[in-house]
Protein: tRNA-dihydrouridine(16) synthase
Organism: uncultured Thiotrichaceae bacterium
Amino acid sequence: MRIFLAPMEGVVDYTMRDLLTRMGGFDRCVTEFVRITEQRLPARVFRRFCPELENGGKTAAGTPVYVQLLGGNPYYMALNARKAEKVGAPGIDLNFGCPSKTVNRNDGGSALLREPERVHAIVKSVREAVSDDIPVTAKIRLGFNDASLLDDIAGGVAEAGANELCIHARTRLDGYKPPAYWQHIAAIRKKLDIPVVVNGEIWSPQDARKAQLESGCADVMLGRGSLCRPDLARAIRADQDGQIYTALSWEEVLEIMIGYIPALEGGNHKFAPNRVKQWLNYMRREYPEAEVLFQHLKRMKTLEDIKHCLHNWQVPKGEINESGR
């Protein structure tokens, strides 16, 4: 099996990709989407979204990072795919899954799932624009309001020459509400001669096995689950290899968070405090201690205050309920 890190907009930037791939278990990452309009973007834009381009298109741990493009114009998507290749992208990923209303209103993301022929045209245009040895992958949902066009969408992606298709097992209408409908992917996977990757609602090694079984896919993509549990990819790989695995303790996670601060200090200080809070907010699902810490620092304004809090943090007695870890 292969395990991929999902391209979560505003969440999984290069600092988080670096941290999670250092944890181990991932075979590939994808950048946050580069919005493509009617222009050819300069190299600096691709390098801003993917600093890993300066390292051969890989994270420090050696994990390849594909550049993701989002847009509705086949010509400009192709033009910018060619530019991304020129600056060193090891692969191009096409976003047809983003459910954001703003993105959808501006002819991008899952809005295109209502027009399978346009999805096909974009994939075909990009595939023809880049070298044969540059993989072109696509990420879709089951559909916009329902899955009635899934056959046409997925078949069009494959026919257009994509090397791989990732399917988030929910529609745009479903958003991120559970459950994920992994079973809808099974019939599509049997019809396609390219690899299909299952994504959505994978929070544990057990979820990964169930997603694989119901979808028929060998490969999985992890999104929010890898933020709630930084070692999830490693745990899934150990489980599939039949190995006993001990999950990270809260104390170990706290040390990882402290180690994350220096990476943020080199970036945009305006947004850095929110990145820590955002990550801690995700971890509340897995670690009860994270809930207490989040409530304590959620109103802190500076990274320095947050860093001081993390370095000196001790859980107040009585604030972890008995159902916690």
